[in-house]
Design goal:
This protein is of the alpha+beta class. The protein is built from 10 helices and 25 strands.
């Protein structure tokens, strides 16, 4: 239906004004349909950057900063890599004759530590769901390979990476193989810990214990090392080697590694792992504002501070995972800010544009704005859209018209109630649920939607004393920033965040 309307849409244009833009467009204020900031100001979560003094922790031979998080205990079905997906029995990924995941570089196969651990976790998840020993055996194949090529230093097991390369592709930052990384170290720790938990085998518990010891050896030191304590006492899990270079401080690699420490603690009860995980989370709590680019894509690392859209979406998910593990609202609020800064771009749906004036932009292949249009529509239209994002730092959110007559390929500024994606965008979940307060006397409209964004039920409530709810999900629905109530008579109803309706 949207496509047919798009082909005939030229007839409804009353006037079109086109202007070529300067290549260095100035960022305009972020306004309109992007998510509301009514729930919390950035300063609320950025206050989490306060200093945490280094402290001694029993059983750990160095001091580091630790915020007093109260870790939440999650059972296996609620932890990372536990979901409803069963991996296919036929592996279409790159693997060798034993079914072990590999990496190919310039035609040569190499061992792939992170890939083997990740695939092992996926197969353990399939085994948990189905009980089919085929998946357990394939997970065991990954584990046997990993322990077969480990390197040992002071009792700690490390897993070498090949081949040599430039540090995330940057000339002049050469990393010679074999090199060691906290990201696969943490992923392997998670995998071996879970394998020990699910099989009860002492072999895999011993392997997990040795892998954990690497997190107790901050570098530089003799032999391999993957962790460090910075000059301010913050504990870093480094994805990239830093010998002879500035430490990279990569956000996604640090977080991914930290989740392995949490898993090891859940399985073994080792309090050293709990304190190290808290230390890693404290580091992010402190440095997170430095990774952020307000109104734009977050930085991949602190050494170079280059924005990376792919990893930005990962950062949002990891912040929500940190909230899930610690219950600290700083991480949930930061995830909201990051998501508002640069919403996940990929969409596949219908763009609704109501009658009236709308603003359109065309960009070149480099993302630079090159033309603008102001379009007036006599009647509403529905077009197909395939992308929703900011176009430059601080810009409003735009939707790309995939099929829309003369506007195909142009970007329309999102405006609630005027130009918006039909249905849901930028959805994310909160576990544990967060609190929502409604000021006294404020009338609250709660809506239930079907999968197509149509309202299927509506209720209106208010109280002279105000209202309190818990919410477990947030999304932009039909252009408006909404949260979903998680309990009570309005469970699964969505309410709009606005003045007098505050998310805590």
């Amino acid at each position: 239906m949207g496509g047919s309307r798009g082909r005939g849409s030229a007839a409804v244009l009353v006037c079109v004004a086109t202007a070529v833009l300067a290549l260095s467009a100035v960022a305009s204020p972020a306004a309109g349909a992007q998510e509301s900031a009514a729930d919390v100001t950035d300063a609320v979560w950025e206050a989490g950057a306060a200093e945490a003094p280094p402290a001694a922790v029993a059983g750990i031979p160095f001091r580091f900063a630790v915020y007093p998080f109260e870790l939440r205990r999650l059972e296996l079905p609620s932890r990372a890599f536990s979901n409803s997906r069963v991996v296919p029995r036929v592996d279409t990924g790159l693997h060798d004759a034993e079914g072990v995941r590999m990496r190919r570089v310039k035609g040569r196969l190499y061992e792939f530590p992170r890939g083997q651990a990740s695939y092992g976790l996926e197969n353990l998840n399939a085994y948990r769901i189905t009980g089919d020993a085929f998946f357990l055996e394939r997970a065991l194949a990954q584990a046997r390979r990993l322990v077969s090529y480990h390197t040992e230093a002071a009792g700690a097991w490390y897993y070498p990476n090949y081949p040599s390369r430039q540090r995330h592709g940057r000339p002049g930052e050469y990393v010679r193989a074999p090199y060691y990384s906290a990201l696969p170290q943490g992923r392997i720790l998670m995998f071996l810990s879970r394998l020990a938990e699910m099989t009860g085998s002492p072999r895999w518990r011993e392997a997990a214990d040795h892998t954990f010891l690497a997190f107790l050896r901050p570098g530089p030191c003799s032999g391999p090392y993957v962790v460090r304590v910075d000059a301010r006492g913050y504990y870093w899990l480094e994805e990239w080697p830093w010998a002879g270079m500035k430490p990279d401080a990569t956000l996604n690699g640090h977080n991914s590694s930290a989740f392995g420490l949490y898993e090891y603690h859940m399985v073994t009860g080792d309090e050293r792992a709990a304190e190290l995980f808290k230390g890693a989370a404290t580091t992010i709590r402190h440095y997170l504002p430095r990774f952020r680019n307000p109104g734009w894509i977050s930085c991949y690392c602190l050494a170079h501070r280059h924005p990376n859209a792919h990893y930005h979406a990962m950062h949002v998910g990891q912040l929500l995972q940190l909230y899930k593990l610690t219950g600290d609202l700083v991480f949930a609020r930061a995830a909201d800010s990051f998501s508002r800064d640069y919403p996940r771009p990929a969409v596949n749906g219908r763009l609704r544009v109501e009658p009236g004036v709308c603003r359109a932009v065309r960009i070149d292949a480099a993302g630079t704005p090159v033309a603008r249009r102001t379009v007036t529509l006599r009647r509403g239209v529905t077009w197909r859209t395939d992308c929703r994002r900011r176009l430059w730092r601080g810009s409003p959110v735009y939707l790309r018209v995939r099929s829309g007559g003369t506007l195909a390929g142009w970007w329309l500024q999102e405006r609630p109630g005027r130009a918006f994606l039909i249905g849901t965008a930028a959805a994310r979940s909160y576990a544990p649920p967060r609190r929502l307060s409604v000021a006294a006397g404020v009338s609250l409209q709660a809506l239930a939607f079907d999968e197509n964004g149509r309202v299927r039920a509506s209720r209106r409530v208010s109280s002279a004393d105000g209202l309190r709810f818990t919410v477990n999900r947030r999304a932009v629905i039909n252009g408006y920033d909404r949260v979903r109530i998680s309990a009570g008579d309005l469970e699964r109803f969505w309410v709009r965040l606005r003045s007098g309706v505050r998310l805590h």
